[in-house]
């Protein structure tokens, strides 16, 4: 973990840190459109480097006292962990991480120590590879980091169960001590001091238990036992420390009601369950009987509760994330936060405000202000003065410039199912008979939203209409829509992508003869499979970190502990893996294809694209491969983002020119 000098980091941060500036006038009250029509001219697009610019800060967290901001800051083209004062930006601590490590989460332990969970791929005996997770703490006063439980020999040694809120420095962390089946394979729970790594054992390993649950005071209260043969899970629970664990409920793996929060001062749990008339509800239940004590929130018909918003310590539920027909993405349960959210929205007039981190007393907070087609800015807010103070510009190159117009559109799939998509129109261009890029999302259990997307905006800036279909099987539209994807991977799910093109052409928005399909991860699979299944529909295909061989992808999980569960999940998606794997249909591909993949990808193995390239090249197909030696799955290095965008731009201009 290389440490740069403070002076060097300060120099690199100074161009983007905008400390102590009030909200600009056009942020607080954006200008209205002029009454007199003005001729629209197409401006020269920004260079690829503008869109490749890393978000200045990601994962920002405010310390419990609200005096420090921690996050992954863009420094010299890569991300570094930085702790900085919003009041005096000359005060900072920072640490670098190796290129092959991904930061999974950060959390404050008191006001001086930052807990960081990291993941990497490491070789095992016999040549296999495995995900390894570990935790470190960074002390902001000394710039020193401490390895936590790195002497354990298992894969996962960074399951943080609880952090204190009283200023103390001992956390609860669960970790495995072996990669081999046996007593040490099952994780124990440790009380670990983040300042020095010293630890004691709080709960010994239990056979078949991989997940432990602590209450809000740091007492281990629950565990999840797994029956791998039957594919079921059982909740083990105890009302207090020292009592025995009772078996509470056994369900199919994904159906078990897992506590989201266990109260320390009462025998109660907070859970999410289907309410009356199929309406999702967040409820507090009695730990023994399971009876509902109070309903914290019940969604309307057609609205899904997709998750909960905790406070920064993880010891209280402050809100619920909503999907489906919801008009708000986050509903605050705390009346004061709900009122503040509404006040932000009213004062910003057209821009959006999102509270991303809160001090312990909820009086200081970090607020992101943006628009769907703008990366936005990060503000510091203190209820004591009632003003938003600009802290950081998230993208100094694109903010404030003309961007592609984003809007939600709806179309009917060929079987009548309604599909929602996000459409981005090139800046300064009328959406009429444009060359088009269909950009399906990854997952497939995910969805595209009305938020800044540097890929979509970059492609649109080059003159292309960009459509991002939320095909059947996407999340956010309810259980019924999600299940529509079962058995349809490569079939009706692929039809939904094609039908987005057909709809856009019928509406006169796009020229169907000038269409390319571009995607990443599962979207990369869609791009490859589209070229193989529907070669006459597309002019070109670009797959980024895509899955070329579904059978191999499933087998990657085959020997893991929950291989049965993963296989069953994928088997629900398609009855015949080889039949819908692009690798097996190379002869059908007629259009040029570009493959892009990072060798540091921890999610989809680089070999997927390498094998596809080798087979296409051997078959004499028109294929290019951009292999990036330091890129991960998310392109978290600026040079890799620039290489990615430049390759896309060059390939599209060659095979589907916009003019």
TrEMBL record:
Residues 456-655 form the Peptidase S9 prolyl oligopeptidase catalytic domain. Keywords: Hydrolase, Signal. It comes from the Bacteria. Residues 1-20 form the signal peptide. This is S9 family peptidase. It comes from Novosphingobium jiangmenense.
């Amino acid at each position: 973990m290389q440490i740069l000098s403070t002076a060097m980091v300060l120099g690199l941060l100074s161009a983007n840190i905008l400390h102590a500036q009030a909200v600009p006038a056009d942020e607080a009250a954006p200008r209205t459109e002029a009454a007199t029509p003005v001729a629209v001219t197409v401006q020269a697009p920004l260079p690829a480097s503008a869109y490749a610019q890393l978000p200045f800060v990601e994962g920002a967290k405010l310390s419990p006292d609200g005096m420090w901001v921690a996050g992954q800051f863009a420094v010299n083209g890569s991300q570094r962990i930085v702790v900085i004062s919003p009041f005096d930006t000359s005060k900072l601590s920072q640490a670098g991480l190796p290129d092959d490590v991904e930061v999974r989460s950060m959390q404050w332990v008191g006001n001086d120590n930052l807990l960081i969970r990291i993941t990497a791929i490491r070789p095992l005996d016999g040549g296999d590879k495995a995900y390894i997770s570990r935790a470190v703490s960074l002390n902001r006063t000394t710039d020193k980091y401490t390895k936590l439980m790195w002497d354990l020999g298992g894969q996962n040694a960074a399951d943080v169960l609880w952090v204190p809120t009283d200023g103390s420095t001992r956390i609860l962390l669960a970790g495995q001590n072996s990669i081999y089946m046996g007593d040490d394979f099952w994780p124990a729970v440790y009380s670990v001091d983040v300042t020095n790594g010293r630890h004691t054992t709080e709960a010994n390993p239990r056979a078949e238990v991989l997940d432990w649950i602590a209450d809000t005071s740091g007492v281990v209260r629950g565990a999840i036992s797994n029956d791998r043969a039957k594919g079921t899970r059982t909740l083990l629970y105890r009302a207090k420390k020292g009592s025995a664990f009772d078996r509470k409920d056994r369900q199919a793996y994904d159906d078990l009601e897992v506590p989201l929060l266990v109260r320390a001062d009462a025998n109660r749990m907070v859970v999410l369950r289907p309410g009356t008339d199929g309406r999702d509800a967040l409820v507090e239940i009695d730990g023994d009987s399971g009876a509902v004590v109070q309903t914290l929130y019940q969604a309307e018909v057609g609205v899904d509760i997709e998750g909960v918003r905790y406070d920064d310590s993880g010891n209280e539920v402050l809100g619920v994330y909503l999907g489906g027909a919801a008009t708000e993405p986050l509903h605050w349960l705390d009346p004061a936060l709900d009122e503040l959210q509404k006040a932000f929205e009213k004062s910003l007039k057209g821009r959006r405000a999102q509270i991303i981190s809160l001090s312990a007393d909820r009086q200081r907070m970090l607020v992101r202000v943006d628009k769907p087609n703008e990366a936005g800015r990060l503000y510091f807010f203190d209820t004591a003065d009632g003003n938003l103070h600009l802290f950081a510009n998230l993208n100094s190159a694109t903010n404030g410039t003309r961007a592609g117009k984003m809007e939600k559109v709806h179309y009917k799939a060929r079987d009548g199912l309604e599909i929602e998509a996000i459409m981005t129109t090139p800046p300064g261009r009328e959406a009429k008979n444009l060359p088009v890029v269909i950009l399906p999302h990854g997952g497939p259990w995910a969805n595209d939203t009305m938020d800044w997307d540097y890929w979509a905006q970059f492609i649109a800036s080059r003159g292309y209409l960009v459509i991002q279909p939320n095909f059947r099987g996407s999340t956010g539209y309810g259980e019924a829509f999600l299940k529509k994807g079962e058995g349809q991977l490569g079939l009706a799910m692929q039809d939904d992508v094609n039908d987005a093109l057909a709809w856009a052409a019928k509406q006169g928005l796009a020229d169907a003869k000038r269409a390319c399909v571009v995607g990443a991860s599962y979207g990369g699979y869609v791009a490859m499979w589209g070229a193989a299944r529907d070669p006459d529909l597309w002019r070109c295909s670009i797959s980024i970190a895509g899955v070329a061989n579904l059978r191999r992808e499933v087998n990657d999980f085959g020997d893991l502990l929950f291989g049965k569960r993963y296989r069953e999940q994928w088997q629900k998606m398609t009855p015949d893996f080889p039949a819908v794997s692009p690798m097996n249909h190379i002869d059908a591909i007629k259009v040029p294809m570009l493959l892009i993949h990072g060798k540091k990808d921890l999610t989809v193995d680089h070999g997927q694209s390498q094998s596809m390239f080798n087979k296409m090249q051997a078959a004499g197909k028109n294929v290019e491969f951009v292999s990036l030696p330091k890129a991960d799955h998310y392109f978290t290095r600026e040079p890799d983002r620039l290489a990615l965008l430049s390759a896309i731009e060059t390939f599209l201009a060659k095979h589907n020119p916009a003019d």
